[in-house]
Amino acid sequence: QVQLVESGGGLVQAGGSLRLSCAASGRTFSSYAMGWFRQAPGMEHEFVAAISRSGGDTYYTDSVEGRFTISRDNAQNTVYLQMNSLKAEDTVVYYCAAVTQYRNYLPHLEYEYDYWGQGAQVTVSS
To answer: Which residues pair with 73 in a beta bridge?
Structure first.
């Protein structure tokens, strides 16, 4: 089992940047693929980005492609989401998630992930 704790959320002006971090407990972090999701009030989790166990493969939803970058540091048990050119519509709660088993593609659906963090609020002012 793994516990995930997000940090780095906050308030930023439109066009600005934020970097979210997600620290994982345990000694098997490198055995998990990691993902970032976001959720608006009353809505389901929306996929944002995913990264493979080694960090060699990444996948993004179209709305953040070219603006957001997911990365990981397995020595530090941490996954990051660098968010640039932020827009007002990026204002939601962001969650990191971990998955142990997957096939040939990086998971991008909520039910595919096994563990979730508590979330970090990102607010972009226009």
So the answer is: 78
